[in-house]
Amino acid sequence: CFCLFLPQISICRDLPNIEVITFSVNGISDLEPLHRCQNLSELYLRKNNITSLDELFYLKTLPRLRVLWLAENPCCGPDPHRYRMTVLRNLPSLQKLDNQAVTEEELSQALVDGVEITAPPARSSVENGWSDSTASSATGTTTEPESELLSCSLEHTNKIQEELGMKPVPRDKYSSFSLQETECSCKNRSNVLNAILLLMKELDAEGLEIIQQMVGRRLQAFQKKELQEE
């Protein structure tokens, strides 16, 4: 059982067994990464930037979801009744919505007053993080020098390395990769390290000792490999 306060929603793609997530006040607008969290039972999304109730499409596949807090998002709109009925029509297994218990009467009324969501939200190029100008520049020159992007990626990775008590990554380790490979590798590495940091906070002394032993063996294996290569 995992209960986490996560810094970025993309991590959820790698946490299929997570049960409770708090994403409140995070500027989140896209719920697509949550559709893999099949054990999710409680989800807190208060005060984000979810503009459309069509995002509920990604939550309809979660069989164990019982608690959802979606209040104070743009998708709630000016009509509280219509909003609540639409959520309950699409997520009839909820027991609590916005910290208010769901009644059998509401579930019945939702079939009449709620809007059924049958397709994922349509996303414009801007919503996906790409404007027309950005897309065109991707086929030509980059908007930032490669060296600046590499420095940014390296700085972010080394910050996480420092939190874990690990040595910083030398710049020449990054410069040996192409820009695209570096950005992809940095993103994946950052997601994994962030998840590790969060999970370590949930462990007791015994659990941390086990992690320490595993890390020690892993480091010995790497050191042995480096000596063989030399």
From TrEMBL:
Top-rank taxon, per record: Eukaryota
GO biological process, one term: cytoskeleton organization
Region feature Disordered, mapped onto this chain: 122-147
Transmembrane segments: none
Record field: compositional bias (Low complexity): 131-147
Alphabetical keyword list: Leucine-rich repeat, Repeat
SUPFAM superfamilies reported in the protein's UniProt record: L domain-like (SSF52058)
GO cellular component: ciliary basal body; photoreceptor cell cilium
Domain U2A'/phosphoprotein 32 family A C-terminal stretches: 80-98
Biological role stated in the UniProt entry: Plays a role in cilia formation and/or maintenance. Plays a role in the regulation of cell morphology and cytoskeletal organization. Involved in DNA damage repair.
Quaternary context: Found in a complex with CFAP410, NEK1 and SPATA7. Interacts with NEK1.
Designated name of the protein: Cilia- and flagella-associated protein 410
UniProt organism field: Certhia brachydactyla
